[in-house]
Write a structure and sequence with these properties.
It is a single chain. By secondary structure, the chain is of the alpha/beta class. It folds into two domains: 82 residues, no CATH class; 316 residues, Deoxyhypusine synthase (Deoxyhypusine Synthase, 3-Layer(aba) Sandwich). A hairpin with a 2-residue loop joins strand 9 and strand 10. The longest helix has 21 residues.
């Protein structure tokens, strides 16, 4: 039997025992040769270990070095990658140790499958619905983008703009005990110029400030005959002006997923931009100035054409799909695959990984609560696609999974 010999002097028996426990092994007595035996039953293991049942036998080699021999239940050798022994952060270790069953088990398996997906050289798209940007998902998502774990974003107009609102004025946000607010208190917040998103009140003035940066850009484009753009392109230009006028904000780029995406050059697609404060502002400006919106803004169909062109590139085939919430951000982007196969009637590879986090339950007519299997009938994924459904609060689960993938 082939052995792995660990010549790291810090990897003593105590550390090995902790590693085995974290990796899901349990003691199983002594082997025929007197070696200590540990067994891990079928399930998803930490990175570098196979998913099927595996046994490890421990012994001492020359110089007292620990030796490990991995095999399946029938005694056949099992290959274990060296990265299985690499140190991980406390969050990753905690999930490996404690998140094994039920909803928690799905969290662990989805995170480990993401690691395997990107380590195989494949891309990952994240779709953002809900108010994740106001929940400051950028703190972890921006790092995922910088570390090359996320390669494309599809989001609602609200998530696009609210990431920038946080960057501009986070210290002016107000937190409230939202479950106890009577209608009169809600009206008082409005009168004070505060718009509430669950427990966070966004000052209207930050919205006005960003709109104030965009209006001159729109006017200049109309005057010079410039062409229309996608929503993220307008935000990118406004950010350039913002950082010139307010250089003190530059350090905050670190927690902005929009800035991280722009810096990394990864695409952002925003279907339905009119369903946002800035989209409303553009429509209002067009009405006031007598300008046709198509002179400034490319349509959802234009965004889909751009998305399909991106997906069809060989390096982007079998991209993963990580969906936060339901709604248009996810529905729009995931349709790129059936668009090619069913409408263009051309071959393309299906999405290579799928995970959705949401609190919607499966019900008649409730698309956001539909299980991943339903997507097989639409040609978006296949029966072989790693797929996960996590019914939970995305503000808790998404950063947890991001942290795991990052090895925190």
């Amino acid at each position: 039997m082939d052995f792995i010999e660990i010549d790291d002097p810090t990897f003593d028996a105590a550390r090995l025992r902790v590693w085995l426990q974290q990796a899901g092994f349990g003691p199983a007595g002594a082997g025929e040769g007197g070696e200590a035996r540990w067994v891990r039953y079928p399930g998803d293991a930490r990175r570098g270990l196979p998913g099927e049942a595996v046994e490890v036998r421990l012994s001492r080699g020359a110089g007292g070095h620990l030796r490990l021999a991995f095999s399946d239940p029938d005694g056949r050798p099992v290959e274990v990658e060296p990265r299985a022994f690499e140190a991980t952060g406390p969050l990753t270790t905690f999930v490996d140790r404690h998140y094994r069953h039920y909803n928690a088990g799905v969290v662990g398996r989805a995170a480990r499958a993401w690691c395997s997906h990107v380590e195989a050289g494949r891309k990952m798209l994240v779709s953002l619905a809900g108010a994740m940007s106001t929940a400051e998902v950028g703190i972890s998502l921006a790092e995922m983008i910088r570390e090359g774990k996320v390669h494309a974003i599809s989001c609602t107009g609200a998530n696009l703009e609210e990431d920038i609102f946080v960057l501009m004025a986070r210290e002016h946000y107000r937190h409230v005990q939202w479950r106890a607010l009577p209608a009169e208190a809600e009206q008082a917040l409005l009168d004070e110029g505060l718009n509430r998103v669950t427990d966070v009140c966004i000052p209207e003035r930050v919205m006005d400030d960003l709109i104030g940066l965009l209006k001159p850009l729109w006017a200049a484009t109309v005057k010079t005959g410039g062409g229309p753009r996608l929503a993220p392109d307008w935000l990118a230009e406004a950010l350039e002006v913002l950082f010139i006028e307010r250089p003190e904000l530059k350090p905050r780029r670190r927690d902005s997923w929009v800035c991280a995406a722009l810096d990394a050059g990864i695409p952002i697609w925003v279907p339905g931009w009119a369903d946002s404060t800035l989209g409303n502002a553009l429509a209002a400006w067009c009405i006031a100035e007598g300008v046709q919106p198509h002179r400034l803004l490319l349509s959802d169909a234009d965004a889909m054409v751009d998305l399909v062109a991106w997906y069809r590139r060989p390096e982007n085939q079998r991209c993963g799909f990580f969906q936060v919430g339901g709604g248009i951000a996810g529905d729009f982007a995931i349709c790129a695959v059936p668009l090619v196969t069913q409408d263009l009637r051309e071959h393309t590879e299906p999405w290579g990984y799928f995970c959705q986090i949401g609190d919607a339950v499966t019900s008649y007519g409730g698309y956001s609560g539909a299980p991943p299997n339903e997507k097989i009938t639409w040609g978006k994924i296949t029966p072989d696609t790693p797929r996960f459904a996590i019914q939970s609060d995305a503000t808790i689960v998404a950063p947890l999974i991001f942290g795991y993938v990052l090895g925190w």
